[in-house]
Amino acid sequence: MEITIGTSRLVLVQGDITRADTEAIVNAANASLLGGGGVDGAIHRAGGPKILEACKAIVARQGRCPTGEAVVTPGGDLKAKYVIHTVGPVWSGGNRGERELLAKAYRNSLVVARQKKIRSVAYPSISTGAYRFPIEEAARIALGTVRDSLEENAMAEVRFVLFCASDLRVYENALSERN
Ligand code: ADP
Questions:
Q1: Which tens digits make up the pLDDT trace of 54-71?
Q2: Is 126 in the pocket of ligand 1 (CB under 6 A)?
Q3: How many distinct structural domains can be found in the chain?
Q4: Full domain range(s) for residue 77
Q5: Residue 120 sits in a domain of what CATH number?
Q6: Whole-model pTM?
């Protein structure tokens, strides 16, 4: 599924984000930036040790990455030239600012991308795995935040790469709702 927002494309596909050919891919990292399970582990495995080295240098310089913030490293062996690491919120019932923090993670990833003049970005579904954010609501926040950002500032393409068919369906439904 694909829509256009001004001159930007917003695309939803099913797949493995480590194989995406966008200029940058976004990693659903944790605050340590030292890698973990899920999509984080997959990105470090596919991209090789250069990514972890760069993450360690960032942590040495500025400490852990707070929830909602984003940092950029090279993509190592990935097709993508850059990895933007952002930290989504852990869902703990919805009363701890989780929704705003998730929006912030999506927004700040695009801020970092624009600082690097990156023109295409692929996102996974941040926080909806180990961090247990309910995916229907996460999809609405993800798509709403990215749309708002693209309305202000165009980019060639933002792609959501959903790992399984049911997640893709949830994102497609959320995108159709607002069209
Ligand atoms: P979080 O800790 O932010 O919840 P997870 O990695 O546990 O992050 O899960 C986030 C989403 O990433 C989940 O929907 C999971 O299915 C998905 N995911 C896992 N591996 C990949 C991959 N290689 N490509 C795209 N999405 C992936």
A1: 999 999 999 999 999 999
A2: yes
A3: 1
A4: 2-178
A5: 3.40.220.10
A6: 0.98
